[in-house]
Amino acid sequence: MRLRRRRAPEPSLDLLVAGLGNPGREYERTRHNMGWLVLDELAARHGGTYRGKFSGQLAAVRVGDRRLALLKPETYMNESGRSVGAAARFFKSPVEALVVVHDDVDLEEGRLQVRGGGGLAGHNGLRSLADALGSRDFLRVRIGIGRPGRGDRRSVSDYVLSPFPADVDVGSIVTRAADAVEALALDGLEPAQRQFN
Fold first, then answer.
1. Alpha-carbon gap, residue 164 to 94, rounded angstroms
2. What's the rounded Cα separation, in Å, for the pair 168 and 87?
3. Catalytic residues
């Protein structure tokens, strides 16, 4: 009698999308919470409803025929890896199927960059993720927030935890970043880079 090999179960999702931010009303519209704003936009577009899971808020959505889990870690930025690592293990997501949406002071305000892997650039959320996952090779949607301008005496840490000035069209930046996540899901890295970088 011949034994049939059991087929491995298909993964339950195509992409795990983590938006980095901080919990608490005082951080809601700050530069450091751009990842959360983008995930909220994606959830609204695709009918996702959040529920508490993995020390964060999780919503399942479909983008075309792709299944995405949207995760907003509620562990504070410095502990993001604890939440994302737990979700990645649960979904058995390989690191290349993880998209991290985050603010970046090294890009000018409003500029986007889609990339695979890269350095940590002093970003504590990214450092926490790299430590938890044992890799830096996750996909990224970097959202430029710039640095304090000339004459601005705030430290970078105070700057990232402050809201954008009234003349910055945050909604437009969030919309484009959500479009970039959708392009990554539907078309892959290189086409998304050509479109948004």
1. 34
2. 33
3. 32
